[in-house]
Design brief:
39% of the residues lie in helices and 9% in strands. It is of the alpha/beta class. Bound molecules: zinc ion. Keywords: Hydrolase, Metal-binding, Signal.
Length: 337
């Protein structure tokens, strides 16, 4: 009761700071933690938003697989390739790195815990991929600007951190597009990479994501740092053992970490990154998929040197794969069902 009263008070406070909504957009909110001058009024950070009508109208509904909303697949009967249920992957999913390389990624930021991680990565001359929550982006725009200026890849992790297979087509659009728009207001370009919270995706989520011009990137090595504080078995020591196991057994990978709270940032700085760096060539998620720095943003995609550089002959550009998957494979799936 007291909690809900506080929430209402907080939202009322946020309303004071709300700016005039853009025509056609739902009434938006900004939090009073920044002086950034937003052109757009954004949805409430902690709720699944509604989309702008034009975003939904641009979708080709005929190609969207009719996967059931909010129902986990059963192993052995997974026609819609639900990764969280069965580990099913499609060729378009980015999930690992080339031999000897490691893709560094952090989810759930930006938060008040994030800046020491930015400082650390800068001191080590390392670049990472940050999958940002839109609701956090509008609270800490200066951090997004800093990440971009530091040379990190800015990517999308939905607006409210909801599980995408539990949402309608329209809600999936809203979760991705509001986050994209907020990031573009800050850094001037639109991210290409999307990571669904918990990696929760099926062919419906893939199709909608691809139609909106995004590429999905998950991971193949989980630190389980997200369970620090809730699972007594997950500690900095257990995470160290996990990462030492990777070093002994894996030739490459993309790891899941978080800059959500101080504990997850500390374990990244003190344990995970130094250990990984001792064995692998550290890189970004996009680089793992042979995407250039230009390919990471819609406005500059395809303008880099991919295709002429070293290694281009041995790995496929996922942008190309996505175009093929989105237009051909999705249509085939649709016809087959
Ligand atoms: Zn997350």
């Amino acid at each position: 009761m007291r909690k809900s009263t506080f929430l209402i008070a907080l939202l009322a406070l946020e309303q004071v700071y709300a700016q005039t909504p853009t025509a056609g957009a739902p009434a938006g909110l900004q939090t009073p933690t920044s002086n950034f001058e937003w052109k757009e009024a954004y949805p409430v950070p902690i709720q699944v938003p509604s989309p702008k009508p034009e975003w939904v109208q641009s979708l080709n509904n005929a190609t969207i697989p009719q996967a059931p909303v909010g129902q986990p697949a059963v192993p052995g009967t997974d026609p819609y390739c639900h990764w969280t249920s069965t580990q099913c992957k499609r060729p378009s999913d980015i999930y690992t790195c080339e031999q000897g390389h490691w893709g560094l990624s952090f989810d759930d930021g930006p938060t008040v815990a994030s800046p020491p991680l930015y400082d650390f990565l800068k001191s080590q001359n390392l670049k990472a991929t940050f999958f940002l929550i839109g609701g956090n982006v509008i609270q800490y725009p200066e951090m997004v600007k800093r990440m971009h200026e530091d040379g990190h890849e800015i990517a999308i992790h939905t607006w409210s951190h909801t599980q995408l297979t539990t949402q309608t087509n329209e809600q999936i659009v809203a979760e991705l597009k509001w986050t994209e728009q907020a990031i573009k207001e800050i850094i001037g370009v639109s991210p290409v990479l999307v990571r669904p919270p918990q990696g929760d995706m099926d062919d419906r989520v893939r199709n909608i994501t691809q139609q909106l011009g995004f590429n999905i990137a998950i991971w193949d090595h989980d630190t389980f740092d997200w369970e620090i504080g809730t699972n007594p078995l997950i500690t900095p020591q257990s995470i160290e053992q996990t990462v030492r196991g990777w070093i002994n057994n894996s030739s490459s990978g993309i790891s899941l970490e978080h800059d959500r709270v101080n504990e997850t940032v500390n374990v990244a700085i003190n344990t995970v990154v130094p250990l990984l760096k001792s064995k692998y060539e550290m890189t970004t998620v996009a680089a793992c998929a042979n995407m250039t720095a230009e390919d990471v943003y819609k406005e500059t995609a395809g303008q880099g040197s991919a295709g002429s550089g070293e290694g281009a002959a041995t790995s496929l550009n996922p942008t190309t794969l996505f175009m093929a998957f989105g237009t051909v494979a999705a249509a085939l799936i649709s016809h087959a069902l």
